[in-house]
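lol forgot to send this yesterday, sorry. struct tokens for the thing we talked abt
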């Protein structure tokens, strides 16, 4: 991976006293994030070809490059932990690909909405999980959200313009957004909660603490999604 994008794991990750469960939890979490970034890069690059204007094509191209840079940073961090990045991503490939197969956009505007919904939910989800991590890993995840121009902001402006130009899009994109949020939340539970988090619970969180945090997290994710849709003038 590119040296300029590399990140180093903290020394205490390798210390003899570091719980094995936490190390596996972190490898799984970073593995699913890395594959999600790679998948987003591929899909943004592909969908950019169908953009109605060159300005739109360039904008999606820039966002795709951003996703790939994130992929490189996360995989470099995994390698610095002594974890093979491909091995860390492999358990999540089938599930993530299946999610994208279930949510194939019907046109370019549905592609924009998909990126808008799923990118925002992913950012919120991983930012919340980052608060449970060691400082170095937490900093890595936080930097993925704050680095450069946020895709959610770019996509919001373009969706606003599209809805203003064609008000008939509103009902279709609102319905599409409702489907996407349901699929995205189910995917988050299936990929991360059912695999990554339980492996890191021993000596990290009690089952009761885990369940309470997950309930609060999903409630917050839903509220954030509703707020973003309202800003677009759409019903969540």
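and heres what i got for the seq, position by position
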């Amino acid at each position: 991976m590119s040296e300029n994008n590399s990140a180093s794991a903290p020394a205490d990750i390798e210390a003899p006293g570091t719980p094995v469960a936490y190390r596996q939890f972190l490898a799984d979490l970073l593995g699913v994030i890395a594959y999600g970034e790679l998948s987003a890069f591929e899909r943004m690059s592909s969908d950019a070809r169908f953009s109605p204007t060159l300005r739109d094509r360039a904008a999606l191209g820039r966002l795709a490059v951003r996703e790939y840079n994130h992929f490189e940073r996360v995989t470099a961090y995994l390698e610095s932990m002594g974890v093979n990045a491909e091995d860390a991503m492999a358990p999540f490939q089938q599930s993530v690909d299946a999610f994208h197969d279930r949510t194939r956009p019907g046109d370019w505007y549905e592609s924009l909405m998909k990126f808008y919904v799923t990118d925002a939910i992913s950012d919120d989800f991983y930012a919340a999980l980052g608060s449970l991590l060691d400082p170095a890993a937490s900093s890595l995840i936080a930097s993925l959200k704050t680095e450069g121009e946020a895709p959610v902001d770019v996509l919001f402006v373009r969706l606003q313009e599209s809805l203003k130009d064609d008000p008939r899009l509103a009902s279709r994109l609102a319905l599409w957004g409702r489907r996407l949020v349901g699929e995205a939340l189910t995917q988050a539970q299936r990929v991360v909660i059912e695999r990554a988090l339980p492996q890191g619970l021993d000596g990290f969180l009690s089952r009761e603490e885990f369940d309470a945090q997950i309930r609060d997290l999903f409630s917050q994710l839903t509220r954030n999604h509703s707020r973003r849709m309202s800003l677009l003038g759409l019903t969540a």
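The CA atoms of residues 110 and 176 lie 7 Å apart. anyway ping me if u want another try
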